[in-house]
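# nightly structure sweep
# worker-07 picked up a monomer target from the shared queue
# config: single-sequence mode, recycle default, output format = C-alpha cells
# input follows
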Amino acid sequence: MLTDEAPQRIVLFDSPPALTSSISAELAKLMGQVVMVVLADSTPSGAVQDAASLLAGCPNVQLLLNSVQFSPNGRRFGSYHGYRG
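# output follows
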C-alpha cells in the first residue's frame, strides 16, 4: 500500500463526480476517508443522497459544502433548497 512505510502520510485521489462515473465508487472501497464536495444552493439533496450511497463502500464519508454565502451579521450561512439557516 502507499502508506505502509509511512502511516502518517496522506494520499489524495481526485475522482470524477460520483454520479457520472463508477470510478468514484470503486475508489471509495479502497479509501479510509472520502470527502464529497457539494455546491451550496445548487446540488439537489437527492443527488447528494444518491452520491453518498454510491460511496458507502468507504467507512468514513464526509461532506464539504462549497460556495456557501456568509452573512457578516452571523444570522445565516446561506440556504439549501428553501431551508434558510
